[in-house]
From TrEMBL:
InterPro entries: BPD_transp_1_N, MetI-like, MetI-like_sf
Sequence intervals crossing the membrane: 95-116, 137-164, 184-206, 241-267, 287-313
Protein name: Peptide ABC transporter permease
Lineage: Bacteria, Bacillati, Bacillota, Bacilli, Bacillales
Compartments where found: Cell membrane
Gene3D superfamilies: MetI-like (1.10.3720.10)
Species for this entry: Virgibacillus necropolis
Length: 320
């Protein structure tokens, strides 16, 4: 187990390096540079050139990449010229909100998906199965941003059950009970909106696996030996059917990253996704490259978590 985990982590290192090189080169290919927006364009061109030389913007790309990577490793992502503050400080302000939103969405996703998938798979071709399958088909056909807009309009603006923007009620003191409850209250609707769409693929995977597993020979043998139906499902069917769910866990993180961009923008929730879109609109490339790098690393870590969970559940993967 430890050998597999260490080997998998070592594989992750070149992936992160390659990702950082690609992001840096793409940022270099964009119009403008780190000096754009920081200085008055009406300045003397000689003075601008001196500033470029001073900042190392005339160096070869690999020299600039090395300096940028050294700074990123130390948590220094540069300066945001639009927000007039260090990018690392800006990210620290937003990443906590995105982290809580992702955790809440994952929690609701599995709380909803697992019971529905088990019910649909165990009682397939019944009315319950048809209703759950119908829900998943609607979910597959509905884009996340449209579903989020509809839930915001119904539960936020029409019924007034949830706040329509922000992450906390202004004026509350951090650390108080009211502050915590306000954070949770603002989190509920965005998290549920994301979870109700994210959950459909997990329900379908679990349903398919249960239907496939319960027809296999070892299940027939267990029934022939007189095992009760609950024992057959709890000890044999579910144990084998949860493998793809475990494999899917890490990729759920990748999906949440993409979903957070839409969810946070629609609900005006101040997180990394909203920061990413704001930075693109403001052409704040320093922030864009930093956020893309963090999103990419989160995706790689998600794949790592999937592999480690799979190796725990299925020892054959460790052998390979």
């Amino acid at each position: 187990m430890w050998k597999f985990s260490i080997r998998r982590i070592l594989i992750m290192i070149p992936q992160v390096i390659l990702l950082s090189v690609l992001i840096f080169l793409m940022a270099q290919a964009m119009p403008g540079d780190a000096l754009s927006g920081l200085i008055d364009p009406n300045l003397d061109p000689k003075e601008i050139e001196e500033r470029r030389e001073e900042l190392g913007l005339n160096d070869a790309w690999y020299v600039q990449y090395t300096d940028w990577a050294k700074g990123a490793i130390q948590g220094d992502f540069g300066q945001s010229f639009r927000f007039k503050m260090p990018v690392s400080e800006l990210i620290n302000q937003r990443i906590i909100n995105t982290g809580w939103l992702a955790l809440a969405t994952l929690f609701f996703t599995y709380i909803i998906a697992v019971p529905l998938g088990i019910t649909s798979g165990r009682f397939n071709d019944t009315w319950a199965d048809r209703m759950i399958t119908g829900y998943t088909y609607i979910g597959f056909a509905t884009p996340l941003f449209i579903f989020a807009l509809v839930t915001l309009w119904i539960f936020g603006f029409q019924l007034g059950w949830f706040p329509t923007s922000g992450s906390v009620t202004p004026g509350l003191e951090p650390g108080t009970f009211d502050y915590v409850m306000s954070k949770f209250y603002h989190l509920l609707l965005p998290a549920l909106s994301g979870a109700l769409i994210t959950t459909v693929s997990t329900v379908q995977y679990l349903r398919s696996e249960i239907i496939d597993t319960k027809q296999k020979d070892f299940i027939v043998t267990a029934r022939a030996k007189g095992a009760s139906e609950s024992r057959v499902y709890n000890r044999h069917v579910l144990r084998n059917s949860l493998l793809p769910i475990a494999a899917f866990f890490g990729f759920e993180i990748t999906g949440l990253i993409g979903g957070s961009i839409f969810i946070e923008s629609i609900f005006a929730y101040p997180g990394m996704g909203q920061l990413f879109l704001e930075s693109i609109n403001l052409r704040d490339y320093t922030v864009v490259t930093s956020v893309v790098l963090l999103f990419g690393i989160a995706s790689i870590v998600g794949a790592l978590i999937s592999d480690i969970i799979l190796s725990l559940v299925d020892p054959r993967i460790r052998i390979k």
